[in-house]
Design goal:
This protein is of the alpha+beta class. It is built from 17 helices and 18 strands. The strands form four sheets. A seven-stranded antiparallel beta sheet has the order 3-6-15-8-9-10-11, with no helix packed on it. The protein has a seven-stranded antiparallel beta sheet with strand order 4-5-16-7-12-13-14, with no helix packed on it. α2 crosses α4 and α7 packs antiparallel against α8.
Length: about 700
């Protein structure tokens, strides 16, 4: 079961990541379904310490925002009195265009919001208390241990989640004589060795994901004795930690005492210069070619290893002498070596080393393979241009862009006439399809404007049995939650802005229909996506609930009698409340509707439903909910998502596919790229959204 109130990163399903999809399901056409102030002050987020300064002997061409790092969640349990820290996410600058990192960032955004909401509102983890009691009660601060346990319980391991990037050294996967410092980004040898072959090694908290294609990190030598032994490289999980990396099976490393490279054996080969204190050594692995390279102080040293294989390879370092001290940079700060330029095709020819040219050749080869793929077998009766035109036309019609679809059809016909091609062009509609498309357009327009009650009336008028289906229960649930969110949006906008001047009703303006049977056929969805996201305040219209006939969609927003206070209308048609009293009444109405919403779904045992209710109700705890940790619920993309789900449900009820053919093509391409990327292959150099849809 999918989360009934998930938050997509993009506004269109074409750009959503498909981490939970499979090739078989896509090919078969299957679809998946500021600090609070209003009711008391809560603690603020703690900011992490600034990153330590990094040494650089080159002029960087990177933009200031080309790298980012966020606070991290330590791998061990800290003191009970210390405040909880949100999960860490590091986006190395050279991976900013990686589709794998895009998926990681989307997942991290959700995890960060969940963790911060739980820390600020520990009581929201329980939905058994009365909603109004939750509003008025004070927050009970709990220990860090309890909060982290709650976070883990509410966020079980995601089996289909993208593999994480290394963020720090592991406090578990290390030799006991090593001490971790500076948030586990520094490691210092404080023990002793008994034999000449004994040493102390450590691995990172996560392996390098092959899905990124090329992974790179740097290590700064903060301290090294004259006879010290330091190895920098990577190893598998079975490599021994009481010997230097490179000496053991499943380990590869570059050693600083002699400049040799070691590949799974104690017999090394001459490779590069020696390194000592304050040298910066970088290590990179190319999973597509199975090769690895090193850098020293920003200078590329060439490939050190070939035929590198292993399911899980961790960045690893080892040392042998007391007080030897290393600092790692996994991408939280700019690198000394210009790895960003090496990954950018436009700058590669100017670097002058073979590895950069090799990366460019890999990219060119992958793109050439894609471009030379024939489309003849996809549709024998159409050439490639006509096939693309039909995919676009069907997508526009499917998603309700009626006028745009018609305009596209006319343009295609006009374009084909001078070429003496088929004058019929791309056929879009028959009369029945046109009628349903207009109805679906009206429903989507209402949702995109935040007028949920109006959309519900349209649904029950045109497609009365759609929401009664058990498979659409989640769609109905999301619509109910969205109505509550829109009510809070209106309350929030009124409470955070000065009251606008009142204006008489504009001449010629017709009131909103009360029976839901008339609407403006000229509303076009293309314009809706660019309109202001704040919805006009309109009287909701009563509609029976398909799953609870005793409830009315309008109840709670209007009171039991369905009456409304008098409101003025501005010249642009947006109705305005006339006083602060009306704003307070809107809040009361929202709370009443929230009670109804909670009562209606309180018996639903699904964790996703309970979490969605908790997240939705958390909006009432903030003076300015848009700036809160749950403010993302109020963004326009939430309207787009539910509008698409309603549209799909209606199409299925009409015996039509829930997804457009173009969406299925893109989804299938994403799954195929995932398959090609899983082992570090050619798919790692392809980003479907960036390379094909932009």
């Amino acid at each position: 079961m999918t989360d009934p109130y998930s938050h997509p990163q993009s506004y269109r399903r074409l750009n959503q990541s498909l981490s939970s999809s499979s090739y078989a399901s896509v090919a078969a056409g299957a679809t998946s379904q500021s600090s609070p102030a209003r009711f008391g002050a809560l603690s603020h987020l703690l900011h992490p310490e600034d990153d330590p300064p990094t040494r650089s002997n080159m002029t960087s061409t990177k933009s200031p925002d080309s790298w980012s790092a966020r606070p991290y969640l330590s791998t061990k349990m800290p003191d009970q009195d210390s405040p909880p820290s949100p999960p860490l996410f590091i986006r190395p600058s050279y991976l900013r265009n990686s589709r794998h990192v895009e998926r990681l960032e989307t997942q991290h955004t959700v995890e960060l919001a969940e963790f911060d909401q739980l820390r600020r509102h520990p009581q929201s983890a329980s939905s058994s208390q009365d909603l109004s009691a939750n509003i008025g009660s004070a927050t009970i601060h709990r220990s860090r241990k309890d909060l982290i346990q709650d976070y883990i319980a509410r966020n079980p391991l995601r089996t289909n989640a993208p593999k994480k990037l290394p963020t720090c050294w592991s406090d578990i996967d290390k030799w006991p004589g090593l001490e971790l410092l500076a948030g586990a980004t520094e490691v210092k040898f404080t023990g002793s060795t008994k034999t000449s072959d004994e040493a102390a090694a450590i691995r990172s908290d996560h392996p390098m994901p092959k899905e990124v294609g090329i992974y790179y990190f740097e290590v700064t030598v903060l301290s090294r004795g004259k006879e010290g032994l330091i190895g920098i490289g990577f190893s598998g999980p079975k490599a021994s930690l009481n010997r230097l990396p490179g000496w053991e099976p499943e380990s590869w490393a570059y050693h600083g005492d002699d400049g040799f490279s070691f590949s799974c054996t104690a017999s090394g080969k001459p490779y590069g210069p020696k390194f000592a204190a304050w040298d910066v050594v970088g290590c990179g692995v190319n999973f597509e070619t199975g090769s690895a390279f090193f850098t020293k102080n920003g200078v590329f040293l060439g490939e050190a290893f070939h035929n590198v294989r292993g399911d899980k390879l961790y960045p690893s370092v080892g040392m042998k002498k007391n007080n030897e001290h290393l600092r790692v940079n996994f991408g939280s700060a700019p690198f000394v070596f210009d790895i960003d330029s090496m990954m950018e095709a436009s700058i590669l020819p100017h670097l002058g080393h073979d590895f950069a040219n090799q990366v460019q050749k890999q990219r060119n080869r992958v793109k050439a393979d894609i471009n030379k793929t024939s489309a003849d077998t996809l549709e024998s009766a159409r050439d490639e241009t006509m096939l693309v035109q039909e995919l676009v036309a069907q997508y526009l019609a499917h998603d309700g862009y009626v006028e745009t679809a018609r305009a596209f059809n006319r343009e295609v016909r006009d374009e084909r006439k001078p070429l003496h091609m088929d004058s019929d062009g791309v056929e879009l509609f028959d009369p029945s399809q046109d009628l349903h498309a207009t109805k679906r357009q009206s429903i989507r327009s209402a949702i995109l404007e935040g007028e949920i009650d109006k959309a519900l009336n349209f649904i029950n008028t045109y497609y009365p049995h759609v929401l009664e289906r058990e498979e659409n229960r989640d769609v109905y649930f999301k619509l109910r939650c969205r109505k509550f969110i829109e009510m809070i949006c209106r309350v929030n906008d009124l409470s955070t802005q000065d009251p606008p001047p009142l204006a008489p009703k504009a001449a010629g303006k017709l009131p909103h229909p009360s029976n839901g049977t008339t609407f403006d056929h000229q509303m076009e969805l293309d314009d809706q996506l660019h309109r202001e996201s704040r919805a006009p305040i309109i009287p909701p219209m009563p509609v029976p609930s398909p799953f609870n006939p005793g409830l009315r969609f309008g109840d709670g927003a209007n009171g039991a009698d369905g009456k409304h206070d008098t409101m003025d209308t501005a010249p642009d048609g947006v109705q305005l409340v006339s006083s602060a009293t009306d704003s307070e009444q809107l809040l009361v109405d929202a709370l009443e509707f929230g009670q109804e919403l909670k009562a209606e779904f309180s018996d639903d045992p699904r964790p996703a439903v309970r979490k969605a209710l908790d997240d939705t109700f958390a909006l009432i705890a903030y003076q300015d909910a848009r700036e809160s940790i749950v403010g993302g619920l109020m963004e326009g993309k939430g309207r787009v998502e539910i509008a698409e789900e309603v549209n799909s449900a209606i199409l299925v009820s009409l015996g039509k596919p829930s997804s457009a053919a173009l969406e299925k093509v893109v989804a299938q391409a994403e799954v195929l790229v995932d398959m090609l990327s899983s082992d570090g292959g050619a798919g790692t150099f392809v980003n479907v959204r960036r390379d094909c849809l932009q």
